[in-house]
Automatic annotation (TrEMBL):
PROSITE patterns: ABC_TRANSPORTER_1, ABC_TRANSPORTER_2. It is an enzyme of class 3 (hydrolase). It holds the Pfam family ABC_tran. InterPro entries: AAA+_ATPase (IPR003593), ABC_transporter-like_ATP-bd (IPR003439), ABC_transporter-like_CS (IPR017871), ABC_transporter_ATP-bind (IPR050166), P-loop_NTPase (IPR027417). It comes from Xanthobacter agilis. PANTHER family: ALIPHATIC SULFONATES IMPORT ATP-BINDING PROTEIN SSUB, TAURINE IMPORT ATP-BINDING PROTEIN-RELATED. This is Sulfonate transport system ATP-binding protein. SUPFAM superfamilies: P-loop containing nucleoside triphosphate hydrolases. It comes from the Bacteria. One of its GO terms (molecular function) is ATP binding. Its EC number is 3.6.3.-. Residues 22-237 form the ABC transporter domain. Belongs to the ABC transporter superfamily. Keywords: ATP-binding, Cell membrane, Hydrolase, Membrane, Nucleotide-binding, Translocase, Transport.
Amino acid sequence: MNQAIRTPLLPVGVVDPADKAVALKGAAKGFGGRILFEGLDLTIRRGEFVALLGASGSGKTTLLRILLGLDTLDAGEGEVATPRAAVFQEPRLVPSQPVWRNVLMGVPRRARQRRQALDALAEVGLADHADAWPVTLSGGEAQRVALARALVLEPTLLLLDEPFAALDALTRLKMQDLVRRLCARHHPGTLLVTHDVDEAVRLADRVLVLRDRRLTLDATVGEARDGTTPAGARMRARLYAELGVDPLGLEAAGASGSAP
Ligand SMILES: Nc1ncnc2c1ncn2[C@@H]1O[C@H](COP(=O)(O)OP(=O)(O)OP(=O)(O)O)[C@@H](O)[C@H]1O
């Protein structure tokens, strides 16, 4: 069932962590004869927030798993800096452990100190939930614990796989704001996998599109972050076009409008 490991995991901790968090060259990966991507070059600098968009099944999560060391490349080379940490769509907390112990899950056992967990929980606004049990948390709170668990490692590379997708719209906006602020404070290199064009432009310094086995777009956000400006509207339209999506249904409306 498992794909045979054909190449070793990416070497970690090799790139200069003061500079780059990820450096990939000519990366390729496929499953069962289907190539997901090939010839892919990707650099993420320390402190840079990069969002990755792409159709369902294009290989976004696979690329993230490779950077996390959970899967291997078929071809190409690269390096990732350590420490790495990840937040996924679901919080993945251990239900039998109180919140503060969950926060320290990635810390080597002998180095675990309650103080570190309390500091990380304070950063995500959950200082008063340290002794709570995961089952008592809301979805948004549980996801903030997952974020604290990642940040307590002081990652050079932070990997976010649709971490806001399961949250309600208001909680999602608050959580996006929190992630943006914490990334600015801790400045890891960050890769956010998302389906949400607005989210990508709101959070990222650069937005990539994975399509037809390649990164077909690598756009700097800059002043396009604000969706109410012409630059913001243009960037969103460009990304939707790259993804082959018509967000306003204009084509369909045009078609019905011309019908008798
Ligand atoms: N371990 C595996 N073995 C076989 N096929 C796999 C494996 N992991 C992923 N795939 C396949 O690779 C393709 C890409 O999966 P991946 O999860 O990377 O896509 P994605 O772009 O993240 O999709 P989504 O946006 O829907 O999450 C899918 O067709 C998936 O079924």
